[in-house]
Specification:
flat; 152 residues; OB fold (Dihydrolipoamide Acetyltransferase, E2P); 4 helices; 5-stranded mixed β-barrel; 5 strands
Length: 152
C-alpha cells in the first residue's frame, strides 16, 4: 500500500510540474500575441476547419509546429486584405461568430485572428446559439406535448 501511495505521489508531482510549465508557456505566448496585434479591415471569403498542412500556411509556420500538431484540425479563414488573398488561423472561441462573405475589422497578430467586429456595427456577426442540455430539451418536449408554456 505504501509503494502505491509513493508512486501516486510521484506521478502527481510530475504532472503538477509539467502543467505549471505549460501554463507559463501559454501565458507567455498570449503576452506576445497582445504585443503584436493590429486592427485590419478584411473581406472574409470562406471559413473551414482543416489540417494545418492542408491550409496553405507559410512553410515557416509549418516548420515551427510539431508533426502531431500539423495533423490537428484548426479553424482557418480565407481572407482578402487589400489586393492579397491569404489564409489565417482563427481563435476557436470566435470561429462560429465570424461572418462569411462580409467585410469586417479584425484584430490580427501574425497569422492569428483574435477578434472580429462587423464593419458596419455588428450586423452579420452571428452569436453562437447556446446548446441545450438533455434535461432542458426533455422538459421542453414534455411541456410542448402537454400544451404548457415554459416559465422562465
Amino acid at each position: 500500500m505504501a509503494i502505491i501511495t509513493l508512486v501516486l505521489a510521484i506521478a502527481g508531482t510530475v504532472l503538477y510540474i509539467v502543467g505549471s510549465k505549460r501554463l507559463a508557456q501559454q501565458e507567455e505566448s498570449k503576452a506576445q500575441l497582445e504585443a503584436a496585434k493590429q486592427t485590419v479591415s478584411m473581406f472574409i471569403i470562406s471559413k473551414k476547419k482543416m489540417r494545418m498542412s492542408e491550409a496553405g500556411l507559410p512553410a515557416a509556420a509549418l516548420e515551427s509546429v510539431s508533426k502531431l500538431a500539423r495533423r490537428q484540425k484548426l479553424p482557418i479563414l480565407k481572407v482578402k486584405v487589400g489586393p492579397q488573398i491569404m489564409n489565417l488561423i482563427c481563435e476557436p472561441e470566435i470561429f462560429d461568430s465570424v461572418p462569411e462573405k462580409k467585410e469586417v475589422k479584425a484584430t490580427v497578430a501574425g497569422l492569428y485572428v483574435t477578434s472580429v467586429k462587423g464593419l458596419h456595427g455588428n450586423k452579420g456577426v452571428k452569436k453562437p446559439e447556446e446548446k441545450k442540455g438533455f434535461w432542458k430539451r426533455t422538459l421542453e418536449k414534455a411541456q410542448e406535448k402537454a400544451g404548457a408554456k415554459q416559465i422562465k
